[in-house]
Amino acid sequence: MMKLNNILHKILHSALCIATAALCLSLSSCIEESTPTSGVIDKQLEGASLLGMSNSIAGYMNKNNTSSSDYTAIGYPGIMLWREVMANDWAPLTTDYDYFTYYASGQYIGDYYAQGQIWMFYYYLIQKCNLLIGMENASSPENRQYLGNALVYRAMAYFDLARFYEYKHTGIESLDANAESIGCMGLTVPITTEKTTEEQSRHNPRAPYYEMYRMILTDLLRAEEMLSGFEKARAKSEASLAVCHGMMARFWLELGSRFEKNPADLSAALSHENDASLSGYKALNIKTSSDCFANARSFAQKAIAESGCRPLTANDWYNPNNGFNTANDSWMWAILMGSNDAAVTDYSWDSWVSFTAPEADFGVSSTQYRNSRMIDAKLFQTIPSTDWRRYTWIDPADFNMTGTEAADNFKKKYQTEHNVTLLSYDEWHSLGAYVGFKFHPGQGNRTVYKTGNEVDVPLMRIEEMYLISAEATAHVDGWAAGSQEITNFVSAYRDNAYSFTASSKSDFNEELLRQKRIEFWGEGITMFDYKRLSHAVCRGYAGTNHPSAYRLNSVEGCCPPWMTLYITSGEANMNDKLILNPNPSGVISAWEE
Questions:
Q1: Alpha-carbon gap, residue 433 to 398, rounded angstroms
Q2: Is the pLDDT of residue 16 over 70?
C-alpha cells in the first residue's frame, strides 16, 4: 500500500485547498485544462459556454482518473460500488480480481491513496459547480436551468460528504473515545463555495452539521426557484425540479432520523438558527423531528407527481439488452455514458460494466474471472417466490440441481419466464449461487467492450421516493400507516401477495431496509440508510456466503466504523484547520465459525 503523506499535494494540490476558481478541469470545449494558479483568468471564463460548463458537471460523473493507481477510480460509479461494499449485500463470488477489498475487510481504510481519491473526486465536482454558480445570475430561462443543475449537483456532493465523513458512534469503545478526544464529533467537511479564496481554503475548518445542513438546504431552495417550470430536464443526467425535490426528500429524511434519535442535536441546531455567521443560509424552519419527516413525505410525493416516472415492470428490470443499463421511465436522474467517453473507449475491464455485469466477457465479474457479485444469502432467503425480483439472483436450489432437468429448469425459469440472462446454462452454472444479473452490458453486447461499456447508471429512481414517503408516513402517522404505504407499493409493483404491518419502530425499520436492500442492490443507496438508522452490518453467520476476510459484524444500534471515512494527512498538510477522524482500520475482526 502506498502511504499518502504529501502525494495529494503532488497531484494538482488538494482539491479542497485550491481556491474554488483555481482549477478549470475540462470545463467545456471553450476552456483548456489549466494549471493551479490563484484563479481562472477572466478571459478564459469570458469565452466559456454555460451550456458546456453545465454539461461538464454531468460529464465529470463518469470520469476515469487515468492518473490513479486505484482501479476503482471510475468516477461516481466507483464510489457507488464502494458504498455497496461497505454495506451487507455485495459479496464477491471469489476474491480474485477484487479491487474493492478495503472497506469489505475493514483494512487499509486510514491514511491511504484510495481514501484520498474519494475526497478529491467530490471536491473537483464541487469546484466545477462553483465555477458555474459564480458566473451565472439567472439572466435567462436557459441559464436558470444550468444554474439549478449546478446547485443540485453541489448539494448532492456536500450531502454525500457530510454523511460519509461525520463521525457517528460505533460502539467500539477505544475508537469512540479517540473521536471524542480528537474533537471531530458533529463535524462534517469544509465548505468551499464560489466565494472561497485560496487563502481561506488553507485555513478552512470542517463545518458543524447544523451549518452544513443549512448550506445544503440553501442550495436546494435556490435550485428549486431556478428549476421551477422545468419538471423535465434536457437529459436524465441533468437535475429537474423533480430531482431537486427528490434530493429534498432524502435531505429531510436524514434530518428526521437524526433528530428523532438525538434530540440534543435538534436543540443544538435550533440554537444556532440566528447565528450571525450563518445569516447567509436559509433557516431550517422546523421545531421537531416530525416536521422533518413531514417535509420528507411532502417532497417525495412532489417528486413522484412532477417526474412523470413510474416504477419498473418485470420486463423493464430483466431485459437483457437494456435492463439497468439504459435510462428509462423509472429513472429520474442518471449518469449517461457516451460512445466517445473515456470511461467507454479507453478501458475494457476497468469500468462499471466490468464490475457489475457477469455477462460481459471483458469484465472481472465474467465467467472467466468470476469476481461476480452475490446478494447476501440470508437476505435472499427472505424473498418469497411471489416477488418477481427474486429471480435476479441464482437460487441455490436451482444451482444445485443435477441431471437433465437442471438445464431445463434454468431455461424455463431464467430465460423463458423471467428472461434474466444471455448466458447459456453451462456459463450460468460456472458461476455460483446468489450471483446477480441485475446489470447488463450495453445493448446486451458481451464481447465488444466499446459497445458493452456504453451504459447509463441510475442516480435516483422513482421507487426510492415511494419508500421515502412510506418511511416518513410511519413517523408522522404511525407504524400502521407507514406499513400500509410499503404494502401498497410492493403489492402493486413487486409482489401481489405481499402484506406487512409493523408493531414497532424496529419492526418497521427492518422491513423498510429489507425492501431497499432488494430494490436497490448494487446502486449505492443503502449504505447511507445503514448509517442513518444505526443498523448493524452482519456478514458473519452460519451459512454466510461472504468471503472469510469480509465477515464483519458491527455493533447493533451503532454506525459500522468503516462507514465513516478517514480524511488523509495530505489534506491536513494543506489546511491547518482540518481535524481528522480516527483511523477505523482493523477495529473489528472477521467473524469465525
A1: 8
A2: no
Which of 560-587 are b and which e, b meaning 16 or more Cβ less than 10 Å from the residue's Cβ? bbbbbbbbbbbbebbbeebebbbbbbeb
* CA distance linking residue 300 with residue 332, whole number of Å: 12
Nearest alpha carbon to residue 359 among 275, 272, 453: 453
**How far, in Å, CA of 386 to CA of 576, rounded?**
57
Instruction: Provide the CB-side half-sphere exposure for 257 (13 A, CA).
Output: 21
**% helix / strand / coil in the chain, to the nearest 5?**
50, 5, 45
Instruction: Calculate the alpha carbon distances from 557 to 263, 412, 472 in Å.
Output: 16, 43, 20
- Give the span between the Cα atoms of 429 and 318, in whole angstroms: 19
Residue type, 1: M
Sequential DSSP letters for 356-420: H-TT-TTSTTSTTT---EE--HHHHTTS-TTSGGGGGB--HHHHT--SHHHHHHHIIIIIIIS--
The closest alpha carbon to 315, from 417, 398, 446, belongs to 417
Beta bridge partners of residue 436, listed in sequence order: 393
Question: Cβ contacts of residue 448 below 8 Å, gap of 6+?
Answer: none
Residue 37 has pLDDT above 70, yes or no: no
Three-class DSSP category at 99: coil
Contact 186, 209 (CB under 8 A): yes
Q: Torsion angle of alpha carbons 335, 341, 342, 346, nearest 10°?
A: 120
In this prediction, residue 20 carries a pLDDT of 31
Residue from 3, 10, 277 nearest 115 by CA:
3
As a whole number of angstroms, the distance between CA 481 and CA 477 comes to 6
Number of residues assigned to the chain: 593
Do residues 279 and 272 make contact, with C-beta atoms less than 8 angstroms apart?
A: no
Cα–Cα distance measured from residue 63 to residue 172, given in angstroms and rounded to the nearest whole number: 37
Helices 241-261 and 462-477: crossing angle, nearest 10°?
40
Distance CA 201, CA 120 (A): 14
Burial class of residue 543 (count of CB atoms within 10 Å of its CB; 0-12, 13-18, 19+): exposed
Grid-cell match 465548505, residue found = 191
pLDDT of residue 35: 28
Q: What is each CA distance from 492 to 165, 280, 373, 519, in whole angstroms?
A: 38, 45, 28, 14
Rounded to whole angstroms, the Cα distance separating 418 from 491 reads: 18
Give the up-direction half-sphere exposure of residue 203: CA atoms within 13 A in the CB hemisphere. Answer: 3
Beta bridge partners of 31: 28
Burial label, 537 (beta-carbon count in 10 A; 0-12, 13-18, 19+): buried
What's residue 242's pLDDT?
96
For the whole model, what pTM was predicted?
A: 0.93
Q: 163: exposed, middle or buried (C-beta count within 10 Å: 0-12, 13-18, 19+)? A: buried
Residue with cell 434454468: 410
pLDDT in tens, 48-98: 688 899 999 999 999 876 556 678 999 999 999 999 999 999 999 999 999
Please report the sign of the dihedral spanned by the C-alpha atoms of residue 297, residue 298, residue 299, residue 304: positive
Report the alpha-carbon distance of residue 69 to residue 7 in Å, rounded.
12
The DSSP element (H or E) to which 92 belongs, if any, is strand 91-92
C-alpha cell at 241: 425540479
